[in-house]
Amino acid sequence: MWIYGEATFGPTLGPMLTERRPDRPSRARVRQRAQRGVYDRAAIDAILDEGLVCHVGFVAGGHPVVIPMAYARDEDSLFLHGAPGSRLLRTLADGAPVVVTVTLLDGLVLARSTFHHSMNYRSVVAFGRARLVENADARAAALSTLVEHLVPGRSAVARGPSPSELAATAVIRVTIEEASAKVRTGPPVDDPADHVLDVWAGVIPLAVRTGAPLPAPDLIAEPEAPVAWPAGLDVGQRGGTGRSAAGRSEEGEDAASE
């Protein structure tokens, strides 16, 4: 079962309210700016499905380590991959605890005072356990999931991994135990006394968008560029996932910077 804050979800069930246990606090509960916490599974999944890069935190040799990586979600798990001899893969292979974060930046929030400047964002923090995917067929399927997360439809046209390439690639499945999202939207919230200041305030929207595809110089023909990534596409549109408007108002929220 995957725990989203104070709600528990099974693979085919909706949220079921759970009793608060002060002796078992949720690691994923949002504490700072708690009103921004989101525990809805669909919202969490949407952020994970839109992101391209995650940051993986773990302890190796008694020291904290955080590494940016490509990833893909598969129901209640996240797939990571890399060289079998890498520190991350060696550390996580035997069920080590891990935290994975994904952040989507939607806008810069400019207030009349520097104190109230902020950012509009959607983020997920997920805690879980990592295990090595040992079966070759399962590993190949996981790598296909990773490719499809980045470029939908790519696995149907590109050559899959050879046996030697598959042997040279380790895959980790992170089973998510707890997760939550944190979201900030809307305009700045200035102190009323600052409203008379002649200073521009508002939101500068930000998005990751594609440029024109750059063909490799050694192409033997002119095959079509990936249809999942036409020029000018917002990454949130590549797989049909939604993207919040950077300037959408959020009624009643204290949006001061943290």
Topology:
Elements: E1 2-4, E2 7-9, E3 16-17, E4 37-38, H1 41-50, E5 53-60, E6 63-70, E7 72-74, E8 77-82, H2 87-92, E9 94-110, E10 118-132, H3 136-150, H4 163-167, E11 170-184, E12 202-205
Parallel strand pairs: 1-11
Antiparallel strand pairs: 1-2, 2-3, 4-11, 5-6, 5-9, 7-8, 8-11, 9-10, 9-12, 10-11
Concise overview:
This protein has 258 residues and is α+β, with helices and mostly antiparallel strands. The chain contains 4 helices and 12 strands, in the order ββββαββββαββααββ.
Describe the protein in words.
The structure is a single chain. This protein has 258 residues and is α+β, with helices and mostly antiparallel strands. The protein has a domain at 2-103 and 114-186: Electron Transport, Fmn-binding Protein, Chain A (Pnp Oxidase, Chain A, Roll), CATH 2.30.110. The protein is 14% helix and 33% strand. It has helices spanning 41-50, 87-92, 136-150, 163-167, and strands at 2-4, 7-9, 16-17, 37-38, 53-60, 63-70, 72-74, 77-82, 94-110, 118-132, 170-184, 202-205. Strands 1, 2, 3, 4, 5, 6, 7, 8, 9, 10, 11 and 12 form a 12-stranded mixed beta sheet that branches. The protein is globular and about 70 Å long.
